[in-house]
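hey
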């Protein structure tokens, strides 16, 4: 084990790595509840998505842990699941089977990119300002979903959006759960999201908002309802080309950014470079493809991996520990399915994740109009149109146009002009 994971070389021990894995697990295990809850709104079977979520996470995490020896966790990404459910299925009116087909194709493209140097060219083509804007826009989108699920905000004929009835049990319980979770976060309590969900679940049970299942444990079942149900032909007949591109784009730079951040925190970068990057990116690409086959949205590297690094995790043994713990959750389907159906339990997690994602706007140079205005359009239109693809598309169109009108066409990477044209065709000709 020491030879494989290089424990002594990285100044760690088996016990330290296991503790780090446990720490990471409790900070990110909320996804096994939240992800099926979001995707089941498309008509997908909850149990099927739950099992697919766990299995896709295990596959991706084991590959990056054993193959690349990084203490990084792979799991279905927040933002990508919301894009899948609310933008692709609800927004475009396609079936979840077609949406899974788009994820599968994006996964295959990601695998191809991971094996070539073109991945770096693709990442370099996107200005850093727009990358930050996409993250912030998705954060606002996720927060909006959380607020709507809890009915803290509701539809309004006069104002489009209005505040809901805060006296409703589910709504004020969400607020209580949010306050509890934020306080735990302020005190730097490890696993605050998961602990906040547990506390809110207990309060929900006391208030009689749900009944405990007859059995907490059960054998995993239900995967057959989502596994291998993807519709690849429907992707092309529906013209979802920019949807594939959006899945690929967000997964690629979100995963790369997270991996670089965690690796730097663990002191694993060498002269600022990310060693074994091909295997690390391939782990996420395979996780995404596997997830599409089994029945879940794209996977991504989890920033929560940083909590395990803070606890001393330096090797892939941390990731392996998380995979083992994730496998154990498969036997808790009854309680997970009940909890996920209570918006008050899952909504605070969505709101807080959005809070973290929007913090990237501080990295945008707001004095540079050519850079900032397209970023602003992405940030504001993503939640308002309820479509990540639309927000990104408008920003990607405006950016080169402004540069061209300013005579700075050379500042735009040639590949980015192709991005702009593709989004223009999608938004103007194919979205109607």
């Amino acid at each position: 084990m020491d030879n494989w994971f290089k424990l002594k070389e990285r100044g760690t021990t088996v016990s330290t790595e296991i503790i780090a894995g446990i720490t990471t697990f409790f900070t990110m295990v909320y996804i096994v509840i939240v992800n099926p809850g979001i995707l089941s709104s498309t008509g997908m079977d909850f149990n099927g998505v739950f099992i697919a979520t766990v299995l896709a996470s295990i596959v991706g995490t084991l590959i990056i842990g054993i193959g690349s020896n990084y203490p990084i966790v792979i799991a279905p990404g927040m933002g990508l699941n919301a894009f899948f459910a609310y933008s692709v299925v609800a927004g475009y009116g396609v079936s979840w089977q077609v949406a899974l087909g788009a994820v599968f194709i994006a996964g295959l493209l990601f695998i191809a990119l991971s094996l070539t140097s073109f991945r770096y060219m693709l990442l370099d083509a996107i200005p850093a300002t727009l990358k930050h804007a996409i993250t912030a826009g998705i954060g606002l989108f996720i927060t909006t979903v959380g607020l709507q699920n809890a009915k803290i905000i509701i539809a309004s004929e006069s104002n489009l959006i209005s505040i809901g009835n805060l006296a409703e049990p589910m709504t004020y319980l969400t607020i209580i759960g949010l306050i509890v979770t934020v306080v735990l976060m302020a005190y730097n309590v490890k696993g605050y999201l998961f602990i906040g969900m547990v506390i809110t679940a207990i309060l929900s049970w006391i208030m009689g908002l749900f009944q405990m299942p007859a059995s907490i444990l059960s054998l995993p079942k239900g995967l057959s309802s989502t596994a291998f149900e993807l519709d690849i032909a429907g992707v092309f007949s529906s013209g979802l080309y920019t949807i594939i591109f959006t899945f690929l784009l967000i997964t690629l730079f979100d995963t790369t950014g997270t991996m670089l951040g965690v690796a730097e925190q663990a002191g694993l970068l060498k002269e600022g470079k990310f060693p074994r990057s091909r295997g690390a990116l391939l782990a996420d690409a395979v996780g995404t493809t596997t997830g599409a086959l089994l029945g879940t949205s794209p996977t991504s590297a989890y920033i929560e991996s940083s909590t395990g690094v803070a606890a001393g995790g330096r090797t892939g043994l941390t990731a392996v520990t998380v995979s083992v713990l994730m496998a154990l959750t498969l036997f808790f389907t009854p309680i997970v399915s009940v909890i996920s159906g209570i918006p008050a339990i899952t909504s605070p997690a969505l709101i807080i994740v959005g809070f973290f994602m929007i913090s990237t706007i501080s990295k945008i140079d707001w004095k540079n109009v050519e850079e900032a205005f397209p970023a602003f359009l992405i940030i504001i239109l993503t939640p308002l149109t309820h479509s990540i693809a639309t927000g990104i598309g408008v920003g990607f169109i405006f950016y080169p146009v402004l540069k061209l009108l300013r005579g700075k066409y050379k500042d735009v990477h040639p590949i980015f002009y192709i991005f702009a044209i593709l989004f223009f065709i999608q938004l103007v000709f194919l979205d109607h």
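The chain is about 65% helix and 5% strand. The longest helix spans residues 241-265.
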